[in-house]
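Reviewers of the previous submission asked for a worked example of the structure-prediction workflow described in the proposal, so we include one complete record here. The input consisted solely of the amino acid sequence. No template or homolog information was supplied to the procedure at any stage.
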Amino acid sequence: MPSDNSSGRNWFWWVYAAYLALSFIAYSYVALRQGTIGTSAIFATALDVVAFVGFYGFLRRQPIASSWLWQLFALLYTGKFISSVGLVIYVATHLPPRHGGAIDNTLLLAFVGAVLALGLVYALYVYAFGSASMWRSKNTAQPAAD
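From that input alone, the workflow returned the following C-alpha cells.
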C-alpha cells in the first residue's frame, strides 16, 4: 500500500495521475484527428472521465458523492477493463499478423495501455471499497449550526 503524506498519496500516484491525464489527452487528440469517434468510444471516454474523478478522490482521500456509487462504478470499470483486455487477446490470437509477421504496433500499444490501466482499476477499488473511515467521516459530518 502506498505510504501517506500530507498531500494525500505518495509521489508515484501523482506521477501516474500525470500519465493518465497526458495519455487521455493524446488518445482524444488522435481519435478526433482520425475521426474514430463512435458510440462505443464516447461511452468508454465517459467512463474514463468518471474514473479520473474517482482517481482524484483516491489521491486526495476525499469522498466524492457516495461510497455505494463508487463501488458500483468500480465494478463497472473493472468490467470495461476486463473486456478491453479480452479484446486485445482476441485480436492478438485471431487476426493474421500484419507487416510480415511482426507484432502490430497498435496491438502492442493497446496491450501496454491495458497493463498501465491496471493501476487505475486498483485505485478505484481501494477508493470505493477500502476507505470505510473516509466514507464514514463524510456521512457523519454535520452542517454548522447558525
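The chain has a mean pLDDT of 80. We consider this example representative of the routine output the project will generate in years two and three.
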